[in-house]
Amino acid sequence: MPARTGKEFLERLSASRPTVHVQGETLTGGIQEHPAFRNVVRTYAELYDLQHSAAHKDVLTYPSPTTGDPVGTSFLTPRTPDDLVKRRTAFKVWADHSNGMLGRTGDYLNSALMALASAADWFAQAGPAFGENIRRYYERAREEDLLCTHTLIPPQVNRAVAGTRQGGGKLAARIVKEGDNGVVIRGARMLATIAPFADELLVLPSTVLRGTPEDTAYSYAFAIPSDTKGLRYLAREPLDFGRPRHDHPLASRFEESDCVVVFDDVQVPYERCFALGDAELCNGFYTQTSSVVHMTHQVVTRTTAKTEYVLGLVSLLTEAIGIEQYPHVQEDIAEIITTLEMLRAFLRAAEADAEINEHGVLTPAFAPLNAARNLYPKLYQRFPQILRKLGASGLMATPTELDLTGPAAADIETYLQSATLTGPDRVKLFRLVWDTCISAFSGRQALYEYYFFGDPVRMAGAYVTSYDREPYKAKVQTFLERS
Asked: For the segment 30-60, what is each residue's pLDDT rounded down to a tens digit?
């Protein structure tokens, strides 16, 4: 199967039987019709349909190197600058479709798989089979256009001890048995976004492992189908409340579920394992393969689209109520513009300074992308604040779609008009602002962006220790010693 259509995505999902616990209900299939998931599932189907649209198919697909059929551009291994531009342009098409609100579209982990497969020889250090496994899995994901999610971290039980020691070492997902055909995994992991409707779950390393004997059981990387026996997803409360799109314009389209993953003695065949029992290999999983760079290339493209959306939204808001001429309002708009231009500059610099890595892949420069992924989690928090401040009490005056045609229709037309909009149009705009900065959906977006790559404090620590400051220290020292 080459690049999928939305219909093919839905057909595959209808045949899947993942076990999902949501709001006291246990599902073993029927995900595409369940109220908690059906709207976002259809949005994902729209993304797959874009791969076949006349306007976007040349950007979103490329010929498979094995079959010649069109496959997703996010699987493309970049060898030239044009390849990087094509990849980024494809990321942007999908990101624009959701205003950057969908954080786990397939292109995110497809980018990781591409980089990991290109580094197959690196995986083969632990055994030739591991290199072959990751290469074959990438090719299968590419040719079948699989939608993957991933899970990374142990349950949040006692942050004072390492994940491998949570609950005496019996909570975090770990290898409890190894046999002739594979390994058995028991325990739990967080936090698999879109898991109920993903085709596959990638269980990848995250926290740094010390390489002690007790870490061996937690040192692994593998992929399994989302409906594997013994695999359960505990979904959080859905933020799509089944309201009309007019009333919840974002949540009714883009509400991605986040799930705790429970492994109840899950059997993982060896051919689906990419690393086993090797803490050092797991610790270098992202950096040594450049997968973190290609994933961040996709993320910064998505956050650029999200920032463009916020800039457009705040501009419509300030025009609607006639406040754009005030200096303090202009200062807030300038902050959003500055963030947008920084993100664009980071992307441009990363692509301009791209180099071939040791695995033969043209890889964007990580320094500007790393700066972006450290900055944006904090910068995004300002956007809802700005929208709330500028929308002010108007964000409380947001009747529903039913009110627009009900007994209050005349009052809405008269009293809720704005400088540039009729009453109904103003309400529609303010419902969108509300869903971006006040609603439960918006709160999840802010939290999601803040912790997207992990704890920002720990990220900052890693950023400082990994950054080469010696040339700058030497420069200042030379100045101090100048006679």
From this structure: 999 999 999 999 999 999 999 999 999 999 9
- Which DSSP string corresponds to 346-409? HHHHHHHT-EE-TTS-EE--HHHHHHHHHHHHHHTTHHHHHHHHHHGGGGT----HHHHHSTTH
Distance CA 310, CA 290 (A): 31
pTM of the entire predicted model = 0.95
Domain range annotation of the chain = 6-144, 148-283, 291-473
CB 36 within 8 A of CB 45: no
Q: Residue 434's pLDDT band (boundaries 50, 70, 90)?
A: very high
Q: Which residues contact 398 (CB under 8 A, 6 or more apart)?
A: 427, 430, 431, 434
* Whether CATH 1.20.140.10 fits 291-473: yes
Q: Which fold has domain 148-283?
A: Butyryl-CoA Dehydrogenase, subunit A; domain 2 (2.40.110)
Q: State which fold the 6-144 domain adopts.
A: 4-hydroxybutyryl-coa dehydratase, domain 1 (1.10.3140)
Contact, 220 vs 203, CB < 8 A? Answer: yes
Angle ∠(173,176,179) on CA atoms, nearest 5: 130
Instruction: Please tell me the distance from the alpha carbon of residue 175 to that of residue 187, in angstroms, as a whole number.
Output: 9
Is the Cβ–Cβ distance between 259 and 233 less than 8 Å?
yes
Please tell me the distance from the alpha carbon of residue 293 to that of residue 290, in angstroms, as a whole number. Answer: 5
Phi, psi of 130 (to 5 degrees): -65, -40
Helix (H, G, I), strand (E, B) or coil at 203: strand
